[in-house]
Automatic annotation (TrEMBL):
Residues 102-124, 278-298, 436-456 are annotated as: Disordered. Residues 353-384, 401-579 form the Trafficking protein particle complex subunit domain. InterPro entries: Gryzun, TPC11. This is Trafficking protein particle complex subunit 11 domain-containing protein. Residues 607-705, 817-1141 form the Gryzun putative trafficking through Golgi domain.
């Protein structure tokens, strides 16, 4: 498509020229475009002259940017909706100078010929010459004379030379002193320009735009503009004004209004041209030529040819108006006439007119297809190009299977522009091969071409869209087609398209082809720059495409050799020595020899290779034998250096190998000795000390065991890099390996058959080692540690520190220095733990920090972790039981006021009650414990006063031994007193149980001098709520003093602590368990704050049994039965009290 003239196949837009506005610093333009050629344009063109200075200020510059932004010639175009710019039709906007040259409307008269025949003909004619357009088939100097149908110059004339609108920009001064003078100059200039345009014969729209200068706006500005408009006879739609110091919105409004006003006039301009062409077509006669053809058998263009011209013109003018349907009809009509019997078939195949008609047919087809696609008539567009169905490969197959409900548009399957540009480069290469086959007799330009010679060449060479053979590939000394330059231009544009889409492999391939073309032209430096920029980041190296990388490398080396760039040669040779590349026959793989014929460079180049960036023939790895090491102890490690160079490669001598680490390990540096040891091919040598003259060749490798690698600081040590250095008189090479191989490492050892390898470090990084502190030889033991400890006791441990080092050491245990301990000596530290009231598990860590006296810089520590379990030794159950207070209650009728001598008496003088707290203590210890003392502590009371808490009542008053899970029972008598006689609130009692205990043999539990400690365990007692204002019945039993067996005295005490008179009905039920004497039924009245005792004598019917007297006490007023409460020596169940008969 690029071979077609751009204006011939391009979409046509109305041309708008901007005159008088230029960026600062640029000279005025006198031609519409420097690349436009038109017959007689400079010699016979119509000049629109103006010497008025152009606008170059900042306002003009900003306005010019906005105006040129409306140029739609490079934008995607659709005739239905032009969405990007103002208005409905896009424009082609160009900037020109004040002076502009229009193409001539009539050609110059031909120069009279001196031949007798021509002079006779002119005399016979006797009429003036009829002049036509310089590109008309009727003009002798025209490229279409005498029988040409069309030429691209006609489209160029209307698309690039003759504008539909010409916008002139002038300054409008705001200085009142200069206003009159400047306005008159504007009037004269505008009238002069209008006169030139009128005399040119072109009906271009003349527009004036006034740009106000900076400054305050005078009041008469509108009158001045109106005066200019009237003096120049301009229409209101043909003059525009930009206000001073415009804003961005002002610029936008100005541009919008300017191009909106040009929409209608531009359409009318091309409609008038269409009417003119249609009138000429309908005329039906062929205009006479300026001079008839006189050479050979030439004849003028036939009538059908003229109709084709007119239809083509009508289609182009309709496309200017964006009337795509009308343009398509005109193109189709011209296409049908072109292939009629009277036009195409009458043109000889060897004639140049055949190629012109062929090009016109292609142009019409392209324009028809474009019109059909814009009007969404895709089916008709495909029918117009049946050849497309045979070119299915232009559609790229989808990468994935497309579901039925998804739709891919045809243009989504097309290749992008880079593909076709690459095809053009390949086509040009084939074109060059064909050109090189042209014989010498056809490569020289003929002095005078006869029709027979032209016919003969047309039978051999197809010159459609291609030059003649003598222009395509002329003999030496003549300028012909530079195929390499064409290929380079195509590849450059193609690589840009591929690069935009991230297709880097294709870009690299095209860069290689570009470099080859430059090499073909002898442009070695340009080729070197192209290849050198891609070589470090070549994707073929990463993907393992060795064959392509090899071609790239040899091409780069050849360029570097011609340029004399020794560093590049060394870089390429370093990689090409790898045996993954195909060895070149007869080539010497030697780094030194590759640059021996080049001049010496000072200073000599120092080249650094990184392992991840190149394909090196050298490899290096470093492995630690074990995952962990200790401070001050050697680390077993292994350095492996291998070579995978070609078998014919010369060995290299490494001058130094350096291994650096991340962490506390110092670098390892291995230097070559003067005695070189040659390692043969496919051989492995192991050295346990140093690397001696590492001469590497082919598959040889040298392994070194740097066994003495002491580290003085703890932490992780990891290989940071391995550096291989090679020094020569002409260059220095440094090869750095920063990434260890990801596959499993091997460890080389010497066996019976030589070096053997075995895998090490499964599931670990062999290039890293964890440096642990130096292993301590100080032992920490606790011989007095028990399995269990109990809460509230002081735990005492004896920590024994044994120094088993070979020399004295200064030791500190938990910040406590114990001084210097000689070898094989022991120190004892007592530890005591207090405040162990919570039952839980502890983890005790004892750390000993020390250093040897001979090496104080190396700290060593030893840590021992102990598990301590503290459990609660006792748990208890509690029961609060009532008792009869032995003291008499106060007399309600003889109440004595309390004295004030005793503070407590003055504070509490109410009724007193006695209660018994029964505690059942259970041992949860894992061993027998000794209980020294048990007591109850009053933590608080509300609504009363505790008079007395009695001691624990136990059978054995001495220390009691309690075994695991054994129960020990204790009773405590508690006397309570109300604060006042009329106090009826509930009494709340908070108590706790204190148990003093110790282990058996606790006095010898530790060998230390720490004073013995008796632990006290405090158990919380649930809160007791006592209703001291409620009446109750208490039963007490006493054995009889008589010798009668089974005879007892049973007393029932009725208490009325309230302030009410209470009456109770009392009934003793008979039983077969005993006989009794006492009231069977009785009514008892109790005054407030009084109690009464009823005595029964019971004789049981047997011995060693439990009897259950049933005394029913009913409150007569509330009809409520009171429960009889047992006291000491009794039990109770749901039915009542139980008394044991001995």
């Amino acid at each position: 498509m690029d071979a077609y003239p751009l204006d011939y196949v391009g979409h046509n837009l109305p041309l708008v020229l901007l005159s008088g506005i230029e960026p600062a610093g640029q000279e005025s333009l006198h031609l519409p475009s420097s690349d436009v050629t038109y017959p007689q344009l400079n010699e016979n063109g119509i000049q629109i002259f103006s010497d008025f200075p152009p606008l170059t200020d900042a306002t003009a510059k900003r306005l010019l940017v906005d105006l040129l932004a409306e140029d739609a010639s490079k934008s995607p175009w659709n005739a239905r909706a032009y969405g990007g710019k103002v208005g409905g039709i896009g424009f082609r906007v160009k900037r020109v100078g004040r002076t502009y040259t229009l193409p001539p409307r009539k050609a110059r008269p031909p120069i009279p010929s001196s031949s007798p025949s021509s002079s006779n003909h002119n005399e016979a004619a006797g009429a003036p010459l009829i002049l036509h357009s310089p590109i008309s088939p009727l003009t002798p100097a025209s490229p279409t004379y005498p029988d040409g149908i069309a030429t691209p110059l006609w489209v160029t004339k209307h698309q690039s030379l003759v504008p539909a609108a010409f916008v002139n920009f002038f300054p409008l001064t705001l200085d009142s002193n200069m206003a009159s003078l400047r306005d008159n100059q504007l009037k004269i200039e505008i009238n002069s320009l209008k006169k030139d345009w009128t005399s040119s014969g072109y009906k271009t729209r003349f527009v004036v735009a006034l740009i106000c200068e900076d400054g305050p706006v005078p009041g008469d500005i509108n009158d001045r503009i109106s005066s200019i408009r009237r003096a120049t006879n301009l229409d209101l739609k043909n003059i525009f004004v930009l206000p001073p110091t415009p804003s961005q919105e002002d610029f936008r409004d100005f541009v919008r209004s300017l191009f909106s006003s040009l929409q209608g006039p531009c359409v009318e301009y091309y409609r008038d041209l269409s009417k003119h062409a249609r009138r000429k077509r309908n005329r039906g006669s062929i205009p006479p030529p300026t001079a008839p053809p006189t050479t050979g058998t030439s004849q003028t263009l036939a009538a059908q040819g003229w109709n084709i011209r007119y239809e083509f013109k009508l289609g182009v003018f309709a496309e200017f108006r964006q009337e795509i349907d009308a343009a398509c009809r005109s193109y189709e009509s011209a296409y049908a006439l072109l292939f009629g019997e009277e036009v195409f078939e009458t043109i000889a195949g060897w004639s140049p007119r055949f190629d012109d008609a062929r090009m016109l047919a292609d142009v019409l087809a392209i324009r028809i297809i474009r019109c059909l696609l814009w009007t969404e008539q895709t089916t008709l567009a495909v029918r117009q190009t049946p050849i497309q169905s045979r070119q299915a490969p232009i559609y790229a197959p989808p990468e994935e299977t497309i579901s039925a409900n998804e739709r891919l548009y045809p243009w989504e399957l097309l290749h992008h522009a880079g593909y076709w540009l690459n095809r053009a480069a390949k086509h040009t290469s084939r074109r060059r091969l064909l050109a090189e086959k042209i014989p010498d007799e056809d490569r020289s330009a003929p002095t005078q071409a006869s029709p027979a010679q032209a016919k003969g060449r047309s039978n051999v060479y197809d010159t459609y869209l291609a030059p003649e053979p003598f222009d395509e590939y002329p003999l030496s000394g003549s300028n012909g087609t530079n195929h390499s330059k064409l290929i380079i231009s195509y590849l450059t544009a193609s690589s840009e398209e591929f690069s935009k889409r991230g297709q880097l492999r294709m870009v690299e391939s095209q860069k290689l082809d570009m470099a080859r073309e430059h090499m073909r032209l002898g442009e070695w430096e340009i080729a070197l720059d192209i290849l050198q920029s891609i070589w470090p980041v070549l994707t073929w190296r990463r993907d393992g495409w060795w064959h392509l990388m090899e071609e790239f490398g040899w091409a780069l080396r050849e360029c570097a050799h011609h340029v004399g760039h020794s560093e590049t040669i060394i870089r390429v040779d370093w990689e090409l020595m790898n045996r993954c590349f195909t060895p070149r026959v007869g080539w010497s793989y030697d780094l030194k020899r590759g640059v021996v014929d080049l001049p010496t460079v000072e200073p000599k180049p120092s080249i650094v290779f990184k392992e991840e960036e190149v394909i090196s023939f050298l490899s290096a790895s470093f492995a630690f034998q074990k995952l962990e090491g200790n401070v001050g102890e050697p680390l077993q490690s292994q350095l492996v250096i291998g070579s995978c160079a070609h078998g014919s490669a010369s060995p290299i001598s490494l001058t130094e190998v350096k291994v650096t680490f991340e962490g506390s390990l110092r670098p390892i540096k291995l230097q070559a000795s003067h005695e070189a040891a040659i390692v043969a091919c496919n051989q492995t040598e192991i050295s346990n000390i140093t690397l001696s003259d590492s001469l590497l060749s082919d598959s040889a490798s040298i392994l070194s065991h740097p066994s003495n690698l002491p580290s003085m600081i703890t932490g992780e040590v990891k290989v940071s890099s391995i550096t291989l250095m090679f020094e020569d008189d002409r260059f220095d090479i440094t090869y750095v390996v920063t990434q260890q191989p990801s596959k499993e490492s091997v460890w080389w050892t010497l066996g019976k058959k030589g070096a053997m390898s075995r895998r090490i470090g499964k599931d670990r990084d062999t290039s890293a080692c964890n440096i642990l502190p130096k292993p301590p030889k100080v032992l920490i033991t606790t011989p007095s540690l028990r399995n269990h400890y109990y809460t509230d006791e002081h735990m005492v441990l004896d920590v024994l520190v044994d120094n088993e080092e070979d020399e004295p050491a200064e030791i500190s245990v938990e910040r406590r220095s114990i001084g210097i301990v000689d070898a094989t000596c022991r120190r004892t530290l007592p530890l005591m733990f207090t405040d162990t009231s919570m039952p839980q598990d502890y983890e005790l860590e004892i750390s000993a920090f020390y250093h040897l006296v001979s090496d104080p810089a190396t700290p060593i520590f030893k840590t021992v972790t102990l598990d301590l379990s503290f459990i609660r030794p006792f748990e208890a159950n509690y029961e609060l039981m009532p008792r009869v207070h032995p003291d008499a209650w106060p007399d309600f009728f003889h109440l004595d006021e309390p004295g004030f001598s005793d503070e407590s008496e003055s504070r509490a003088h109410g009724l007193q009650q006695r209660w018994c707290l029964n505690c059942k203590i259970i041992s949860f210890a894992h061993e027998a414990l000794l209980i020294d003392e048990v007591e109850v502590t009053v933590n608080g009371i509300a609504g009363g006063l505790v008079r007395q808490v009695g001691p624990a009542l136990r059978k054995d008053n001495n220390a009691a031994e309690i075994l695991p899970e054994q129960v020990c029972e204790c009773d405590f008598n508690i006397e309570l007193q109300r604060l006042a006689l009329d106090d009826r609130q509930t009494t709340t009692l908070n108590l706790s149980l204190d148990i003093r205990w110790r282990r058996q043999g606790a006095e010898v539990a530790s060998s230390s001098t720490i004073e013995a400690f008796i632990p006290k365990t405090t158990l919380p007692i649930p809160r007791f709520v006592i209703p001291m204002g409620e009446p109750r019945v208490l039963a007490t039993v006493m054995p009889s003093s008589s010798a009668l067996s089974g005879f007892i005295h049973l007393n029932y005490t009725l208490e009325n602590p309230s302030m009410h008179l209470l009456t109770f009905n009392i009934t003793m039920e008979a039983s077969d368990q005993f006989a009794f004497s006492g009231p069977k039924s009785i009514a008892v009245q109790l005054v407030p704050l009084s109690r009464h005792t009823i005595q029964y004598n019971l004789l049981a019917t047997g011995k060693d049994k439990w009897i259950q007297p049933q005394l029913v006490v009913v409150d007569s007023y509330y009809n409520k039965t009171l429960r009889v409460l047992p006291t000491e020596g009794m039990k109770a169940d749901k039915k009542g009290i139980l008394i044991h008969i001995a």
